[in-house]
Amino acid sequence: MVDNQGEEYLFKIVLIGDSAVGKSNLLSRFSRDEFDTNSKATIGVEFQTQLVEIEGKEVKAQIWDTAGQERFRAVTSAYYRGAFGALIVYDITRSSTFESVKRWLQELNTVAQMLVGNKCDLEDIRAVSVEEGKALAEEEGLFFMETSALDATNVDKAFEIVIREIFSNVS
Ligand code: GDP
Ligand code: MG
């Protein structure tokens, strides 16, 4: 897509994190609620493209979701290739998914990274505190947000912060 100055913004953003943390639901929540959705299946991965307006410019965010290969830690370099942003997702009710975050980070080389503690609606069975999430994000230089794909808390915000950060880095 080209704006009136002839500029084109297409940002690839990847969702990563352990299996069942809610990556696919975060993406469907984001796309269904706020933006037109185009989904396209490729071999092993799927992405959806969202149009977002930032500072009067149309930005196309191409958000990639795994097709379950993270269960075997078999996410390929093609998945990460060309990515400008990433949401690294854990489940606040399962410490093991939080402990995996550093390993996922090793595979990334993107300009904007958001640590996402998902399922914040499950406060009564929380296993990772907000403070622990914040501390890790600070240590690793990531944005941080707790979200709920179930009740939509902070879902749009998390994606938008990443998209805006990429925009401010490339424009
Ligand atoms: P993925 O493997 O990371 O893509 O995770 P999914 O999106 O498939 O979600 C895994 C499971 O967690 C499913 O049973 C979802 O219904 C559930 N789930 C995802 N997000 C949330 C959330 O924010 N809150 C709650 N309570 N459950 C969630
Ligand atoms: Mg999934």
From TrEMBL:
Family that this chain belongs to: Belongs to the small GTPase superfamily. Rab family.
Identification of the protein by name: Uncharacterized protein
Organism of derivation: Brassica cretica (Mustard)
Coverage span on the entire protein: 1 to 171 of 206
